[in-house]
From TrEMBL:
Entry's transmembrane regions: 89-109, 115-134
GO molecular function: glycosyltransferase activity
InterPro entries: Nucleotide-diphossugar_trans (IPR029044)
Keyword annotations of the record: Glycosyltransferase, Membrane, Transferase, Transmembrane, Transmembrane helix
Tagged with keyword ATP-binding: no
UniProt family annotation: Belongs to the glycosyltransferase 2 family.
Name of the protein this chain belongs to: Glycosyltransferase 2-like domain-containing protein
Amino acid sequence: MYSVKGACFLTRKSLIEKLGLFDEDYFAYFEETDFCHRVWLSGSKVLYEPSSEIYHLGGPNKEVSPIIQFHSYKNRIATYIKNFENKTLFIILPVHVLMCLAISVLYLVKGKVLYSFAIISAIFWNFLNINMLLSKRSFIQEKLRKIKDATLLTEIKKNVKISYCKHFLFDPRGIYDFEEI
């Protein structure tokens, strides 16, 4: 399991003290994934209890707003920049940004200009804040990292479900209807 949902997870206080909790520059979306990525990099593991039941008041809204899109894409790109080794980053980041641009074009074709603008803004936010991200990256790579990306990617690719891939690539909550684009 690569990441858990922020609505309900347990972690050791010592791990939070070592890694920090959520990145303060992440307003919402992908912050728990960033934390879990750092957990893995520190040599710890992310586990889940399949028989547990979680009750969450509220729940996902079918409509994904441009603000949600902005924060989701912004934070995902920032997480990649901060956490991946150079070799992995130089492969994943360009592919991901190209996919983001393709999705942005699809939104434009469907007349959803604000959604398209949100994704483009998320990409540019990362360029405009690259010095801050590189500072965080330096800390993560030099102080926290205990394992190589190859080890991490081998571990997290076990038993990946297609629904997770769809969530990971397209939507912060795993609710994505291709007809809506």
